Amino acid sequence: MNTIVLFSRLLTDRSKIKNYVMNFINEEYINSIIEDNRLKDESMQREIIAKALNAKGISLSEAGALLNISSPELYNELFHAAKTVKERIYGNRLVLFAPLYLTNACVNNCLYCAFRTDNKDLERRSLTLDEIEEEVKFLVHQGHKRLLLVAGEHPKKSSVKVIGEAIERVYSVNENGNNIRRVNVNVAPLSVEGFKELNSFGIGTYQIFQETYHFDTYKSMHVNGPKADYSWRVTAMDRALQAGIDDVGIGALFGLTDYRFETLAMLQHTFYLDATYGVGPHTISIPRLEPALNAPAALQPPFAVDDLSFKKLIAVIRLAVPYTGIILSTRENPEVRRDLFEVGVSQISAGSKTSPGSYLESKDADKKPELEQFQLGDHRTLDEVVKDVCGLGYLPSFCTACYRSNRTGDRFMELAKSGNIGKICVPNALTTFKEYLTDFAPGETKKLGMEFLQNELEKQPEAAKSKTEKMIERLDSGERDIYF
Ligand code: SAM
Ligand code: SF4
User: Fold this and answer.
1) How far apart are the CA of 30 and the centre of ligand 1, in A?
2) How many other CB atoms sit within 10 Å of the CB of residue 463?
3) 372: Cβ below 6 Å to ligand 1?
4) How many domains does the chain have?
């Protein structure tokens, strides 16, 4: 029996996993990189930056060297390189999405999260299917096309069946051709069978964060509940990929342990997935701890990450895995977000709320978001974010084409690596942006956005330009949801 088959069988059996897991998160090796003083050498760091400009990625120890950067000159060189690589592969596009919280009921006890079971001050709420529909209509009317469904872990309130019914309801909403076209999901890890069932509802990316890859820290942060099992969580992506989910998203919650350890371990996880399944994670998320109600680790992060180190680690991730999407949420405030777009972020949430039912309730000024998971740093509406990013020279994209055109997993990566992503993504991005401007943007954003769009169109090579113009013509004559 080959190793993958053996591993795959073992991964379906929860009780046997833990003996097999630590072979891909190698703490000893990561610590040896962090402690290696040779990796502080500035001329070596400069050489690694030069190599990384080829957009072919860098090794774990090279990433370790870049995480040691401390001089202002090298910081600038690192940030410049990350920006260059991002622009070469992704151009100036920023893909937009919103989270939709289905339930804050949770049986786990993560010390950083307001949803934890021991937080008795949090009012628990699980949306009904009709409430989900109302929330989706609200988001569709803002102009959103991509959602991330989020839920606490609960055997009844967030079972696969419940999540599946929620996904079906989300996709069923259609407001004059406007609808949610990609549903990504961030829910507790499942068995291979569970992931197969989840996949059957037509999900985009399955996303879950390891929170911390550091075993002892993980144990101290997850005191009880199913999530206390480190191995079950860190092998979630294996099971998801084996179940046929092509696009998986990983992440770490920064602030729980040394950011260098977390970044290197997350990269080790990435390299392992790539080597084992022929495709790495579709996205990497970089949430940073925010204050949360009755969550001691969030109120006083044990390893708080300052803004400069945060920017550095994002730049290092961009250089290490040039083709992987990097997601930045509204946990960060607008100023920090603007600064981080520069070093390689490719997807952002906007107009987010982090409690079930809060989109509709936000229309009612008297109701406060008492049920939220953590405090947000960016409270702007989608329109305000769109206007801002355009002003900074980024192209807002509402594209959902790849997943619907079967360009997922290794097919997406091949496209990205061959440098062809721009030929497909730019026309799709421009057309979906035009759709947003036509249907949803208020006057000022519409005016600015149309000028921006025209400028972007002029910059395109002839083939992409004429392709986009034809798509926009169809849009102007009333057709919706145009992509290729
Ligand atoms: N309950 C599932 C889980 O834990 O995997 C689903 C996702 S949970 C609702 C979403 C994510 O929010 C967590 O994975 C965690 O990284 C993040 N999170 C929790 N508390 C946070 C806090 N105080 N600040 C920032 N992010 C937080
Ligand atoms: Fe529950 Fe997820 Fe919050 Fe942990 S992070 S308490 S599992 S909702």
Assistant:
1) 25
2) 10
3) no
4) 2
- Ligand number, closest to the Cα atom of 101: 1
Residue type, 302: P
Largest CA distance in the chain: 64
- Number of the ligand 2 atom closest to the C-alpha atom of 227: 7
pLDDT per residue of the chain (484 residues) written in tens, 0 to 9: 334 434 444 455 555 555 555 568 999 999 999 999 999 999 999 999 999 999 999 999 999 999 999 999 999 999 999 999 999 988 999 999 999 999 999 999 999 999 999 999 999 999 999 999 999 999 999 999 999 999 999 999 999 999 999 999 999 999 999 999 999 999 999 999 999 999 999 999 999 999 999 999 999 999 999 999 999 999 999 999 999 999 999 999 999 999 999 999 999 999 999 999 999 999 999 999 999 999 999 999 999 999 999 999 999 999 999 999 999 999 999 999 999 999 999 999 999 999 999 998 876 655 555 567 788 999 999 999 999 999 999 999 999 988 788 887 777 777 777 766 767 888 999 999 999 999 999 999 999 999 999 999 999 999 899 999 999 999 999 999 998 8
Pocket perturbation via mutation, ligand 1, pick of 103, 104, 106, 113 by most ligand atoms within 8 A of CB = 113
189 CA closest ligand 1 atom index: 5
Q: Which domain holds residue 433?
A: 421-476
pTM confidence score? 0.94
Whether residues 105 and 161 share a domain: the answer is: yes
Alpha carbon of 113 to ligand 1 centroid (Å): 6
Residue 197 within any structural domain of the chain: yes
Ligand nearest to the Cα of 356, by number: 1
Please indicate whether residue 388, judged by its CB atom, sits closer than 6 Å to ligand 1.
Answer: no
* Residue 143 CA from chain centroid, whole number: 19
Q: In terms of domains, do 108 and 193 share one?
A: yes
Which residues is 248 bridged to in the sheet?
Answer: 206
Nearest ligand to residue 262 Cα: 1
**CA 112 to CA 102: how far, in whole Å?**
20
Q: Is residue 263 part of a domain?
A: yes
Ligand 2 atom closest to residue 116's alpha carbon, by position in its atom list: 6
Q: Which residues of 296-327 are buried (b: 16+ CB within 10 A; e: fewer)?
A: ebbeebbbebeeebbbbbbbbbbbbbbbbbbb
